[in-house]
Amino acid sequence: MSTTDTTDTTAKTTETGHRSLLVKQGNAGARAVKNRFATGVLTAAMAIAVVPLLLIIWEVTRRGIGAIHWDFFTTDEPSYRQEGGYRAGFVGTAYVMGGAILMSVPLGLATAIYVVEYGRETRAGRRLSDLIRFFTDVMTGIPSIFVGLFVYGFLVSSTGGLGQGFNAFAGSVAIAIIMLPIVARSSEEMLKLVPDEWRNASYALGASKSRTVLTTVLPAAAPGLATGSMLAVARGAGETAPLIMTILGSQYLVSSYFEGAQGAVPLQIYRGARQQFEAGIERAWGGALSLFLLVLILVVLARWLGSKANKLK
Amino acid sequence: MSATLSRQRKRIADPAFRWFVTLAGASVFVILAGMVIRTTNDAWPIFQYQGFFSFLTGDQWLAGSSRTDSDFTGTYGAWPFIYGTLVTALIAIVIALPLALCVAFYINQLAPKRLRNPLSYSVEMLAAVPSIIFGMWGFFWLLPNVLRPFLEWLESTFGWINLAGWKPFEGPVFGSSYLAAGIVLAIMILPIITAIVREVIAVNPVDQQHAAYALGATRFEVMRKVVLPSSFSGIVAASMLGLGRAVGETVAVMMLIGSTKSWDGSLLSAGDSMAAHIAARFGEATPETTKALMAIGVVLFLFTMIINIGARLLVWRIGRVSGDAAV
Amino acid sequence: MSVFDVQGLGVAYGSFTAVKDISLEIPRNKVTALIGPSGCGKSTVLRCLNRMNDLMDATVSGKIIYNGEDIYGPEVDAAEVRRRIGMVFQRPNPFPKSIYENVAFGPRLNGFKGDLDQLVEESLRSVALWDEVKDKLDDPGTALSGGQQQRLCIARAIAVQPDVLLMDEPCSALDPIATLKIEDLIRQLESSYSIVIVTHNMQQAARVSEMTAFFSVDIDDEHGMRTGALVEYDTTEKIFNNPGNTRTEDYISGRFG
């Protein structure tokens, strides 16, 4: 009897006669259980979320790797033969993205420069830049297919539009509209990181505002600006829907930028995946893998540049 | 001499640069206005012909073949597509939001410190994966290996459920369906919502969390009573942005929803969404149909605008979440 | 009788050793000050006393015996430790809630069954804040002045009726008048709580504490390592008037070593 008693008391109080830390008081036990349960749920959720994403990477790699060889990048896709690759798509994507970058990056950057450097000067300017920021945010949410419809109606269509027909330029315009808000918003964040003392130092040397922006602010923010633009390119390069109504797609290499339907990798994947024969589907997986790698490289590169930019802080 | 020249050049260069960047800023409004006007203008004859209300609620869609603006021959009730968009987007958000919350909290609060950065980078990377890849994987791998057996199981187990005439799991099972598209959409928007939520809870002040810990709060209580309340509007905004993405998504849905022109209460039925229908029919469209597809586009635009402006206003109220994660 | 018996405490963050080999006994119902130059590890030691360091992925070695039990013992729940050992931080950190809810936060968590209004009032009275805020208990805690916020944080900590109060430079963000008020408060609270205060202000340590521990940085030139160490621990009077160690003397007299 005495043994049970002593073990009991030592469990409840310490040598100094205080209540032991091991004694759960009031609701403490229930709280600890709840906490363990929540920890379990969160960990399980993480595992559940990771599984499909790992499966995607695994499946795209497994089925795509077989299709990727030198010919995949250097030959065009025949309609019903085994051989052939996505050359037309790669060239087309390069055309479309090249144009889109040339349009969206300068425009987005200039927008950010206005908002950060010029918009703060006057009250009207502040109001305008608030509106610009709000609507660029809203623009990121516009469905890409709607952008495609607009560019079709504006440039491609001959009833009511400019009637230029399907071409790479129309695709560039659509992708540029999708990239513009991403470039503008991320550039804005990066320009804000440049300390005001640097601007003041430049003014103190007698430099004008434009000179200060171009020779002091932009070089200082350059790595960060590149990050935002590369993330925008990663987003733009994978877009499929707006290309259906702007470049239409082509299995064969088209060298003109302004004339004739053009191909693109996402479009070829989309069409390849709907084909009935194995070779076409395999090529689609090859295209998916190359697109995935392209996006991966862009994002990793962007993050690496971004981590350099963060040192500005 | 050269000094005056350069001063003169400066006097021109500075205002010229100012004008250039101001115009660039204003271009956002021009582009947005252009988009709204151009598409609405093209869609207008269809709304006039069909009536805006009956365009939204009619459930029969028969494409016509007129080449002019007047002698339309089709019937344009877009309800089946509106319904498909709403159902797939809702399924996606219902699945993705709780998971995204848990993952974001896991990364931010539970994961070992050295894993937090790699994990959040991976999430951001996955958020950038093109939707065509999700669509392909969903169609060629998930559908035959997981979804079809799962849908068949749902049908055989819950097929009898009848809620005042609504039978959510009624057969037959084709595979491609609202539910299949919704699940793939959920997987697709999961990293997008997670990235934003993670960023929202990351700005929660650490010293308030420490204050709660110092009062004897458990980790769960800190998340539940300190982090969650002050991140609430940010989380709502993140889910609305995710919803916006799901509503506007085209190719992934197109590959999994089954592309029919009818609509059905059962989640296991095939259907179509607004974006998917536009993309699928655009290639073969006559001028009249093209206008009708434009009209669907305008409705889709209105939907996403309402969701987005709501979300942005919320985000703005709580202060900015930095640019690139909100992509 | 001591409330804490720290035995051979060492703390490392990854490969960086913040402090090592700290041993000291902290007396019950007295004010003990931890002083020393920045980087000497005084805050690190303080954060060990209620296991706040667990949140910073610190590796802790040695023992901290609290009322006869090691708080780092394998069965001990850190949350339970923190319920007994309250903490006040460097910067006032009220929750974005009302004044009332700030104080009630801890009791609510702990499932307090008594009269909550009364507990809130008592807690606010004991930090001499009641008269200033009794008519605006529903105002946000963040709307108060810095000094009031810090007193609110102390009230929040004592509302869970802890045994010990740890204070991590509680006045460093405050103006001199607010600082004096907090110092008065510390002297009043001493009868009910054991208090450990970290401060970079030597006059403050001299004014409020009975015991003072002086920490300094050991620099290992060979490896370029800087590690915090306890140099001297004694009554405040002895440390300030007749220090036993020349490094303490240099620091106290402003020559700093």
From TrEMBL, chain A:
CDD domains: TM_PBP2. The keyword Transmembrane helix applies. GO terms for cellular component: plasma membrane. It comes from Streptomyces harbinensis. It is found in: Cell membrane. Residues 90-302 form the ABC transmembrane type-1 domain. This is Phosphate transport system permease protein PstA. It is a multi-pass membrane protein.
Automatic annotation (TrEMBL), chain B:
GO terms for biological process: phosphate ion transport. The keyword Nucleotidyltransferase does not apply. It comes from the Bacteria. Signal peptide: none annotated. It is found in: Cell membrane. InterPro entries: MetI-like, MetI-like_sf, Phosphate_PstC, Phosphate_Transport_Permease. It is a multi-pass membrane protein. Keywords: Cell membrane, Membrane, Phosphate transport, Transmembrane, Transmembrane helix, Transport. The chain crosses the membrane at residues 16-37, 81-107, 119-143, 178-197, 226-247, 292-315. It holds the Pfam family BPD_transp_1. One of its GO terms (cellular component) is plasma membrane. The keyword Plastid does not apply. Residues 82-311 form the ABC transmembrane type-1 domain. GO terms for molecular function: phosphate transmembrane transporter activity. Part of the binding-protein-dependent transport system for phosphate; probably responsible for the translocation of the substrate across the membrane. Belongs to the binding-protein-dependent transport system permease family. CysTW subfamily. This is Phosphate transport system permease protein. It comes from Streptomyces harbinensis.
From TrEMBL, chain C:
This is Phosphate transport system ATP-binding protein. One of its GO terms (biological process) is phosphate ion transmembrane transport. Transmembrane segments: none annotated. PANTHER family: ABC TRANSPORTER I FAMILY MEMBER 17. It holds the Pfam family ABC_tran. Gene3D superfamilies: P-loop containing nucleotide triphosphate hydrolases. Keywords: ATP-binding, Nucleotide-binding, Translocase, Transport. Residues 4-252 form the ABC transporter domain. GO terms for cellular component: membrane. GO terms for molecular function: ATP binding; ATP hydrolysis activity; phosphate transmembrane transporter activity. It comes from Streptomyces harbinensis.
